[in-house]
Amino acid sequence: MNAFLQNFLDWPLLVDSLPSLIGTGLVNTLILSVISTALGIVAGMALALCAVSHTRWLTWPVRVFVDVFRGLPAALVILVVGQGLAPVGLSLFGPNPYPLAIVALALVSSAYIAEIFRSGIQSVGRGQMSACQALGMTYWSGMRHVIVPQGVRRILPALANQFISIVKDSSLVYFLGLLTSQRDLFTIGQNAAVNTANLSPLVAAGAVYLLITVPLTHAINHLDRWTNRFLHPAARRQKASRAARNVRNEEALQSQTAAVAERRP
């Protein structure tokens, strides 16, 4: 037990590693996660709209893209993009691999977000699009003004969950050998653990990850409850309408039964 505490919970090492973890690692992790998720949302929406269209030359490439980048490990995508596109990165960004790490994470997130958007769009009833077309709206106009806003409201918790996944996947960018000032939480904790021959800095890095993910998880739950709050009144009205209709049907049946009984001799 003492060996475990000394190797994982060495408080002086935990405290000493916190300044670099928060000042550098936390900032870089948030930068990588927020930018890649924002790019993934833009690309994912475009991919989802192509996926639900009725044009094959749009749907099939999107299906291949989504299947590939959802099926590959994130570490492999980061390595392929960071090293395979290094010549392109040198011409665009210089020797800095940081932008390529963002591109790799954005590709991974866009594949998942595309499926999230697609499921949200397809959850909207088909009658909505028929009503849009009956009002003279085009397909894309109906998607923009009616279908997509309803679908997006339904998948906000799933988008937040995807952001949490990207926060954790950002720990894999250490494969690209970023500069000291560009290192994320995991890389800083790993380097400190190697230098001190103690895993307490990695435990400290995990604690900082929890500071990001746990509040986000509770925020997602609150968002889900807040979203469902607006859906429940409609559901209650539908339930009340069905109950009232059943009562009317029952009363009509009783009246018919009584009328038949009165006619009998």
UniProtKB/TrEMBL annotation:
GO cellular component: ATP-binding cassette (ABC) transporter complex
Membrane topology summary: Multi-pass membrane protein
PROSITE patterns for the chain: ABC_TM1 (PS50928)
GO biological process: amino acid transport
Subcellular location: Cell inner membrane; Cell membrane
Pfam families recorded: BPD_transp_1 (PF00528)
Region called Disordered, residue ranges: 241-265
Family matches, as InterPro entries: AA_ABC_transptr_permease_3TM, ArtM/GltK/GlnP/TcyL/YhdX-like, MetI-like, MetI-like_sf
GO molecular function: transmembrane transporter activity
Keyword field contains Transport: yes
Ranges where the ABC transmembrane type-1 domain occurs: 26-221
TM stretches of this protein: 20-52, 64-86, 98-117
Key words, A-Z: Amino-acid transport, Cell membrane, Membrane, Transmembrane, Transmembrane helix, Transport
Protein's job: Part of the binding-protein-dependent transport system for glutamine; probably responsible for the translocation of the substrate across the membrane.
Family per record: Belongs to the binding-protein-dependent transport system permease family. HisMQ subfamily.
Protein name in the entry: Amino acid ABC transporter permease
Species: Caballeronia grimmiae
Taxonomy of the source species: Bacteria, Pseudomonadati, Pseudomonadota, Betaproteobacteria, Burkholderiales
